[in-house]
Design goal:
GO cellular component, one term: cytosol
Enzyme class: transferase
Largest sheet: 7 strands, mixed
GO molecular function, one term: phosphoribosylglycinamide formyltransferase activity
Protein name: Phosphoribosylglycinamide formyltransferase
Order of helices and strands: EHEHEHEHEHEEHEEE
Shape: globular
Family: Belongs to the GART family.
Radius of gyration: 16 Å
Number of helices: 6
Distance between the termini: 28 Å
Number of strands: 10
Bound molecules: glycinamide ribonucleotide
Strand content: 15-25%
C-alpha cells in the first residue's frame, strides 16, 4: 500500500477529508503519519482519533529554517512516504526540502492559481471584485505557490459574500478535490514529468483540470 505523510499547521479539515476517503477505501493508500509545526494544531487530534501517528515538531525550537527543515526531513523519511501532502502547512520550505520531495509533494492553495499566491487570498479576491474564485492543488516547486497545477475547482463570488462565506465555499471544494488528486498520484496515474504533470499519460493544461 502506498504511504502518505501529511503536514499540517492548524484545523486539519483537509486532513479529515483525506482520513475520510481512506476510511471508505478511496484514498489509494495509507496515511502513516501527520506532522504539525504547531503542537496545539487541532489536526493532530484528528489524526490520533483515526489511529494515525501524530507528531508535533515546533519550528520555534530550531535556530533556523534550515535546521527545522532538516529535522522535518528526518521525521518524514523515517515513515518512508511515497507522497508528502501539505494540508494547510503554513511554513515556507527551503530549497533543500523542496528538492528532496520534488515530484512527490502536493499542496492545496485557496485560489485559482496563478492568481492570489500567498496569504489572505479570500480577502484579496473580494477586494478586487472578482466574480470567480476557488482552489488549486499543485505539485510543490521552489517557487512559493508557483508549482505546476494539477486540478482546480471554481466557485462563484456573489455580492453577498464575505471573507468567511467565501472561505467556507472554497473549503467545501478543497475537501472534494484534494482526496481525488491524492488518489490519482497514489494509483500512479498522476506524475510530474520534465514537461509538467500528466494524468494517464496525457499532459495536463497549464492551469490543471477544472
Ligand atoms: C486550507 O484552506 C488551505 O487551502 C490553506 O489553509 C487552509 C487549511 O485548512 N492553505 C494555504 O493557505 C496555503 N498557503 P485546514 O487546516 O482546515 O485543512
Amino acid at each position: 500500500t502506498p504511504r502518505v505523510v501529511v503536514l499540517i499547521s492548524g484545523s486539519g479539515s483537509n486532513l479529515q477529508a483525506l482520513i475520510d476517503a481512506q476510511s471508505y477505501d478511496e484514498l489509494g493508500g495509507e496515511i502513516v503519519a501527520v506532522i504539525s509545526n504547531k503542537a496545539d494544531a487541532y489536526g493532530l487530534k484528528r489524526a490520533r482519533d483515526a489511529g494515525i501517528e501524530a507528531v508535533a515538531l515546533p519550528h520555534r525550537e530550531y535556530d533556523s529554517r534550515e535546521a527545522f527543515d532538516g529535522a522535518l526531513i528526518k521525521v518524514i523519511e523515517r515513515h518512508e512516504p511515497d507522497l508528502v501532502v501539505l494540508a494547510g502547512f503554513m511554513r515556507i520550505l527551503t530549497p533543500r526540502f523542496v528538492q528532496r520531495f520534488y515530484g512527490r509533494m502536493l499542496n492545496i492553495h485557496p485560489s485559482l492559481l496563478p492568481a492570489y499566491q500567498g496569504l489572505h487570498t479570500h480577502a484579496r479576491a473580494l477586494a478586487d471584485g472578482v466574480s470567480e474564485h476557488g482552489v488549486s492543488v499543485h505539485f510543490v516547486s521552489e517557487e512559493l505557490d508557483g508549482g505546476p497545477v494539477v486540478v482546480q475547482a471554481a466557485v462563484d463570488v456573489t455580492p453577498e459574500d464575505t471573507e468567511d462565506s467565501l472561505q467556507q465555499k472554497v473549503q467545501s471544494r478543497e475537501h472534494l478535490i484534494y482526496p481525488i488528486a491524492v488518489r490519482w498520484f497514489l494509483e500512479g496515474r498522476l506524475t510530474l514529468g520534465a514537461q509538467g504533470p500528466t494524468l494517464d499519460g496525457t499532459p495536463l493544461p497549464p492551469q490543471g483540470l477544472r
